[in-house]
Amino acid sequence: MNHPEEDRAIDRRQFLKRSVKAGIAIAGASLFGYALYDPTGPVSSEDRVPGLVQLPSFSPSEDGQRMAIVTGADRVASINLAFKALGGIETFVKQGDRVLIKVNAAFASPAFLCATTNPELLAEVGRLCFKAGASSVIVTDNPINNPESCFALSGLGEAVRSIGASLMLPRDAFFKPTTVSGGTLIKNWPVLYTPFEGVDKLIGIAPVKDHHRSGASMSMKNWYGLIGGRRNIFHQNINDFIKELGLMVRPTLVVLDGTMTMMTNGPTGGSLSDLKATNTMIVSTDQVAADAFGVTLLGKTALDLPYLQKAEAAGVGTAYYESLHPIRVQTG
Amino acid sequence: MKPGKLESYIGLLILLVLSVVAVGILMKQFYYDAGMFAVALTKDVSPAQTTDTAGSASDLQNYLPAGMTVLTPVETFGPDNLSEKIDGKAELYLSAGFLGLRCQRFAEAGKPDLWLEVFVYDMGSMRNAFSVFSTQRRADAQDDDFTQFAYRTTNAVFFLQGKYYVEVIAASDRMVEAMLAIGQNFVRENPYSTEAMNEVALFPEASLIPGSVALLAENVFGFSSLNNTFVAHYGLSENELTAFLSRRQTAQEAKDLAWAYHQFLVENGGVDVAMNVTIPDARLVKIFDTFELIFVQGNFLAGVHEAETKDLAEQLASDLNNALTGAER
Amino acid sequence: MRIVTVRRISQTFFLLLFVWLCIVSSFGMEWWQLRGWPVNWFLQLDPLVALGTMLTTGTLYGGLLWALVTIILTILLGRFFCGWVCPFGALHHLVGFLGKWGKSASYKVAINQYHRHHSIKYDVLLFLLAAAAGTLLAESIRIAFNNSLIHWILIAATVCLAALAVAKSFSKGKRAASICLVLIGVWAVLGFFFGAGQMLGASLQTGLLDPIPLVHRSVNLALLSLADANPQKLSSSQRYYEGAWVIGAIFLGAILLNLKRPRFYCRFLCPLGALLGLLGRFSLWKITKKTDDCRHCKLCEANCEGGCEPAAAIRTNECVLCMNCLQECKHDFITFGALPSSSGEIASPELSRREVMTTLLSGVALLPMLNLSGSTVRNYNPAVIRPPGALAEADFLRRCLKCGQCMRICPTNIIQPAGMEAGVEGLWTPILNFRIGTSGCQLNCVACSFVCPTAAIRPLSLDEKRGRNDFAARGPLRIGTAFVDTGRCLPWAMDKPCIVCQENCPVSPKAIFVREFFSTIRGGVLEVRKADALTVEFRNAALPPDQLATGDYYLRRIEAGERERKLIVGNTASLATVRPDQPFSPPPGPSARLEIQVRLQRPQVDVKRCIGCGICEHECPVSGMRAVRVTAENESRSRNHSLLL
C-alpha cells in the first residue's frame, strides 16, 4: 500500500498520538527519576535500624515502694501470704488488665534443680492474676537454650497451659531495637518487644541463684532474658549492664523466690547439693531492694554486688531495703 | 545508494554530538580533588600529627587567599622530631630555641602542579625568630614591606612575625601573589607587640648594607662561648666588612668574654697587631689573612670580623664604638 | 556521509572511549591515570543499572541520573544504544562481521532470521528484576497488612496496576488479565507466609548479565591485567585477580558465540537489550519500509544485526538501528522515519503466559531460598572482608553490580572478585585478599569508595576513614580485626625473633604491641667445662657458630633471675662470649649449668585499635597461611560482628 495524500493526514494524526504517548512516557520516567534521586547516597554503612522502641514503665503509680518477706517452705502458701500482706493482688492487678509475666526459663533444666522459675509458683501467680480480674496473662522469656525445650523441660510450659495463660515464645520478628536513656551499653539493641504490646502490668518471677560472673542472678538479672542479638557480649561489663537492665525495665512488681536457693555453681547448677532451703519468698515493687535482701540468702552482702550500688545511683531503686519497711511474715 | 541530503546532515549532526561528548570528557578530567590523591600516595605523616586536637584543625588554612585548596593535612613537629622534616637544618633551629613547627601544603584549585608549602616555626621569642630568619637570608633576596622583616626570592617568601618565623615555599615561580597574600593574611591575624630588639638600630647606618643585620644565636665565629651576637655588613670602598656586637649582662662579663675570644684567636694562630685607633679595651688580631678587631663598650662586646684591611676595620670599629657609647645597657 | 559510516564511527568512538576509561582507572594524577576522568559514565548511562538499583533501594543514586538520557532517547529513537554506543555490542558486531566474512548471501540471510529464542533475554530481564523487587514486595506487604483496610485496598490497587503493566508488556488482552490475577494472588499468599520479615529480601543480580558491568568486569579483571605483562605496562606491578579465568572464559565464550550467530549475546541473552527493546517498542522514529512494492529479495536482511526481519513485518524491539538494511536496499525502500512500515510491525515480544509467570515467580522465590543459608545474619563468613565504606551485607548486595571498578582502582590490588565466599549472591562482589596484593589496605586511601557507581561502597571522606575531626567520636573505620595465630607465629611457636607485623602496623598508636618473653632454646641447657668472667666453654656442645651473636641470645645460670641474663656477642661450637660490660661475677664454675635463652617479642593485637587493614597479614614472613590473619570480626559496618562493647 502506497501512501497517497489522504493517508498522510491519518499518519500525521497517528504520529501526533505517538508523540503524546512518548512525551508522557518521557515525562513519567523523568519525574520518577527525580523523585527518587539521591545525590549523596547512604551516609552510614551500619545495618539500618528501623524505628527504635522504648519499653513503657509498669510501675504502680502510688507513692512509696512496698516489700513483703515471707518465711516458709511452701511456695504457694508463701506467695499468697506475701500478696495478702501487701493488700492483696488486687492492689496491683485490676479488672481487665493484660498481665505479662517474665519468668526465668533460661535453661532446659528440670524444675527441682531450681535453675529456672518454679512452675508451681508461676501457676499460682497466674491464677491470682486471673482471680483479680485480669483479661489475659502472657508468659514469656528469651532462653539461652532452645526455647521449646526450655519451657517444656522446666515444667513452665505445662504450668502456663494449666492456668489458661498464653505462652509467647520468642521469634525474630518480635525483637525491635531499643536504646536505654541514661545508658551507654544498650544502644540500638534488639529487645523482645512484641509480648509487651498492649500489656498493662508486668511481673517478674525469678529464683535466687549464685552466678559466676555477676555474683548473683536475681530479679534484675532476670531481664537479661528480654535481650536479643549476640547478647553474651555484655558479659564483658556485666554490672553496668545489669544496671541498664534495671533502667530499661520498670515492672509492677517482682517476685524473688528464695525457697530453694542455688548457693554454688550458678547459674546452671546441676546438682541438688548446690541448693539450700532458705525458705524465703520476697515480693517487692522495688527490684533493687528485692535483690539487696535476696543476696543475704546467698550468704553475701549488698556490697558484693556492684550492680546494686550502680542501680541505686542511677535511681532504679534503693539497696537499703529496710527503708521500705518490709512486712515480714512467718509461716510454720 | 548515494545518501540523501537529510541523511548526510543527520550524520554530521551525530558526529557533532560525538565531538561534544569527547570535549566534555576531556574537560571533565581536569576537575578533581587533588587532596584525595596526594595524601594517599604519600607515606602517612609522622606520628606527631595524630595528636591533632579538634580545635587546631589546620588554622594554617585561614591564611589562604581565595582559589586555593588544601593539598595535604597539617603536620606538627616538636624539638624531638624536627629533623624528620628538615633533616640537618634542625640543628640551626634547635640551637635557637625552637618550640614547634606547623606546616602544610596547599595548591591552586584545579591545578595541583601549582602548590606551595607553608612552614610556621614557633621560635619562642622574636629574637630567636630573628636569629633563624637572618642567618638563612638567601643571596638573591628582595625585601618585602608587608611586615618589618621579610624578603622574597623567585619561589619563596620568608618573614618573621613576633615569635614566628614563616617560610612560604612554592613549587613554581608563578605563585608570588599567592605567597604574598598568605604572608599578609598571617601578619594580619597574628599581631605582635614589638619586643626589645634594639640592637638592630645600634649599628651605624653609614654604608650599612640594607637587610644585612643578622642574629647569630650560638657558637658565633666558631667560638663556643660567644652567643647572641648581632652582625651587620658594610660596604666601604668596595670592600665588604662585617661588624658585630653582643649585649652581655654586665660590663665585666663583656670584658672577660673579649679576653676569652682574643685568647681563642691567638690559640688558633692569631697574632696581636698594633692599632691606630683609640678605643678602650680594643685588640687587633691578625689571623690567617684577615684582621679581627675586638673591643668593649659598656655592656657590649663588639668589633669587626674578618676584615681584609686594617684601616677600614679601624674606621668601622670607631663608628661602631661611637654608636655604642651612651647606648642603653 | 552515509549513516552507516556514522554508525561505525560512533561504535568505534565509544569502544575506544570505553577502553580508555578502563585504562585510566588506575590511581594517580597523571593524564593516563584517574584524575577527573568519568570512568563510570557507561555504567551511569545504563538504564538497567538505574532500574535495578531503584527497585532494590528505592532511590536513584547520584550519577545514575544519566540513565534518563538513554531512556529518553530510546523512547524517541529505539535501541540506538545497542547499535551505536554499547561497547560490548560493538565487539559482538565486529566478531560477527568477521564470522560472516566470505559467506554466501543466503547463508547470511538465514543466520540473521528472527528466532523464537530471542525471547529468552526477556525472561532473563524479568527474572533479574523480580529478584530485585523483593524489598518492594516486602514493603508493600508490610504496609498493606499492618495498616487499616483502606491502605490494604490502595496497596492492592497499586500492585494490580503494576502487574497489569508488566503483563501487558509481554502479552495481549485476556492473557494479561489472567497473569495479573495470579500475581495478585501470589502477593497475598506471600504476605501470609513471610510477613515483612527478613526472608523476603532483594538482591541485585543484574550485574551478572547486564552487558556494561559484564564488559567492565571482563576488561578490568581479565584483559587489562594480561596487558600488564608487557613492558609498556599499565600498572607498576602485575595485577592478579582470583578466578579471573572464569570471567575471561565467559567473555571469550560470549565473543566466540558470534561466529555461530552474529550478535548472539545481544539477541538471545542481553537483559539490557530486552529492557531497551521494551522501552523502544513505540519509538517515534524507526526503521520502516516506505512502500509495499518490495519484492522480498531479502538483501536487507543479509546484514541485519538485530535479527529483526525488516523485509517482512519488522520486529521493532529487536532492531538495533544498525542501518545496514537502509544501506543495502537497492531500491531505497527502507528509511528511518516516523511512519509505520508498509509491511507492518510486530511490537511485543511473544512471551507465553507460562513463561512470564515462571520467570517472575522464580525470581521472587529465589531470594528466600538464598537467605536460608543464614549468611547475611548468623552464619556469616568471616573471610568476607569488604572494602572500607561498604554497606552492611544485605544493603551491599542490593547495590553491588559486580562491575570490578573497585578492583581495578585499588592501588594495592587486594580487592578481589569473590567466588562462593559470600554466597551465590556474592559472586564476583569485592572481597579483600591481603596475600595477593602488594600491601594491605592503605591508610589514607579511599579510592574504591570514590569509584563505586552505585554507592555499594559509599563515598568516604578521609576524615571518616581515619576517624578525625567530625568523626573523632566514632573512631576510625574498621574492616575487620587481625588475629595472631600463636601456633604459627615465629616468636610464639618457633623461638625465632620477628616483629615485622608490629613494625608495619600503620596506625598510631600501633594496634599490635609486643610482650617480651625469654625462651630457653632447644638444647640450650649446657654444662660448663671452664669459664671466666666473659667467656664460657661448654661440655658436649654443638652450637651453631656465630648464630647466637645476633643480639637476641642470652646466657644465664639456670633459673637465675632477670638481672642474670648476659647478652651473647660471639660464639663458636662450644664457646660463648658475653658482652664485655655484663661479665659473670663470679664466673661460673666447672659443672655449673647455664641456659641459653632467646629474647622474643611476641605480638598481640589491641582490638580497640586494630582497623583490619591487613598490612600485618601481608608482611608476615610465614608466607603460606599467615601467622597473623584478618577476619571480619568487629567490622564497623555490622553491629552484630562487633567484638567489644
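qc> Chains B and A do not touch (no CB pair under 8 Å).
qc> done
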